[in-house]
Design goal:
Shape: elongated
Number of domains: 2
Order of helices and strands: HEEEEHEEEEEHHHHHHHHHH
Structural class: alpha+beta
Largest sheet: 5 strands, antiparallel
CATH topology of the largest domain: Rhopdopsin 7-helix transmembrane proteins
Number of strands: 9
CATH architecture of the largest domain: Up-down Bundle
CATH class of the largest domain: Mainly Alpha
Length: 442
């Protein structure tokens, strides 16, 4: 009976690790982790894409066990590397009772087991990984009655070039500094073009246009900080403070983008100089949720999956992000509904309905943008080979760029503003089109 309970515990925690492996971790680097009185059978750390010159440096200190005794089999506690495919086979081995401890499997790569401590409370290990692949560093504890405390410093990197420089970015992310810098140049160019349009069409510039410029600038600053962040990690294994700037601008960019979508959806400054109470409530919901989402993102990136609350924060982030994405759609729907009702009661409003079919287009584009960046990109991360992990990130950035370009082009300042310029022929054509649309619906 005790063996069955142990087996169920192993299976549960193995499934837990499999769930963790389905999430894309943050970029691997030199990471310091503190484990305190942890009784988990499986503690995942970092995931990394190794080349044939991959290395793992593991420095573990202040190791202490609860209820230690001389007869403990410490070979059942230690660190190992595993790929996702190998882990699935290990689960089958445990289920078929071929093994009772993960460290007994020949499908994983054992880095260090505690029976080699020889009474010491610390160890240093350099593990050379000759096989290219995506590996996860994991600690296994197959002694359910024992809790472990330790300080773990892990560094995973690949050697490149004749001088064997260390590259602390995963094999699938090593070109990200250049990718983010390229997108920074693109957004900086768009910001310059937007400033030119604002100066050229000063008479038709609304407040929303200046807000759109701010969103562009924040996105550009976010990208340059991310490029520098990844560049320092690539060379040194540490962000050297660039991660702080990245989180700040990421926070401001996220809030400003969601706010912009809400403001455009309400027609603020284009159609009306104020927001209704229900529209203000949407902003009051979205902005605090964005604060929570950014806090969750910082915790996820900085703590890593070894933290006991990591999965909880991940779920909080996903839930809050979904709520924000749904909330920003309501103002667009309300605007379309109000314009349609006005068009049915006021002949002069018919052309507004025809001109503001742009709201329908914008609604569809926002949905496509949210779906692609939240679902398609995530799917690409899970199915793409670790060598080409950068392609999913590029796909997400291209989708974001397309959304920014569409928004800027459709809502740019113009001398003949489609919201304001109305002639009699357009009015009659719009009214006739609306009448035909009503007959078609009937």
């Amino acid at each position: 009976m005790a063996f069955s309970s142990s087996l169920l515990s192993h299976l549960f925690l193995s499934l837990f690790l499999s769930l963790l492996l389905s999430f894309p971790f943050s970029s691997a680097e030199i990471r310091f982790s503190e484990i305190r009185s942890d009784g988990r059978s499986i503690i995942p750390f970092d995931e990394f894409g190794f080349t044939p010159t991959g290395r793992l440096e593991l420095n573990v200190s202040h190791i202490s066990l609860s209820n230690p005794s001389p007869d403990l089999d410490l070979s059942q506690m230690g660190f190992f590397l595993s790929t996702r495919d190998s882990w699935i086979h290990v689960l089958n081995q445990i289920q078929d009772l071929d093994i009772t401890c993960v460290l007994q499997s020949d499908l994983i790569k054992v880095v260090y087991t505690f029976n080699n401590l020889a009474g010491n409370s610390s160890f240093n290990s350099l593990f050379k990984e000759p096989d290219a692949g995506q590996f996860t560093l994991v600690f296994a504890n197959c002694l359910p009655q024992i809790q472990v405390s330790m300080d773990v410093c892990s560094a995973m990197y690949n050697l490149e070039g004749k001088n064997t420089r260390r590259d602390y970015l995963s094999a699938g992310k090593t070109i990200l500094p250049r990718v983010y810098f390229l997108f920074f140049l693109i957004y900086s160019s768009l910001a310059g073009l937007w400033i030119y349009l604002l100066n050229k069409n000063r008479l038709t510039v609304f407040r929303i246009h200046f807000f759109m410029l701010a969103v562009l600038l924040l996105k550009a600053l976010n990208l340059i900080c991310e490029a520098e962040d990844k560049s320092y990690i690539k060379r040194t294994g540490s962000a050297h403070g660039w991660d702080v700037l990245f989180y700040i601008f990421s926070f401001l960019k996220g809030i400003s983008l969601f706010t912009l979508i809400v403001l455009i959806g309400t027609g603020w400054s284009f159609i009306k100089p104020f927001l209704q109470d229900k529209e203000k409530k949407v902003l009051m919901i979205v902005i605090p949720l964005q604060v929570v989402a950014n806090i969750a993102q910082v915790v996820i990136d900085e703590s890593g999956p070894y933290a006991q609350d990591w999965l909880t924060w991940k779920q909080v982030f996903l839930l809050v992000d979904v709520i924000c994405c749904c909330a920003v759609l309501f103002p667009i729907v309300w605007s379309i509904k109000n314009l349609r009702e006005a068009a049915r009661t006021d002949g002069k409003a018919a052309v507004n309905l025809m001109k503001l079919t742009l709201f329908r287009q914008y609604y569809i584009v926002v949905i496509c943008y949210i779906y692609f960046t939240r679902v398609i990109v995530y799917a690409l991360v899970t199915i793409t080979s670790y060598r080409y992990l950068w392609t999913s990130l590029v796909a997400g950035e291209l989708a974001t760029l397309a959304f920014y370009v569409f928004t800027g082009y459709k809502f740019r300042p113009e001398v003949h503003n489609p919201y304001l310029v109305i002639d009699d022929e357009e009015e009659e054509a719009a009214a006739e089109a609306l009448k035909l649309e009503d007959e078609f619906e009937l």
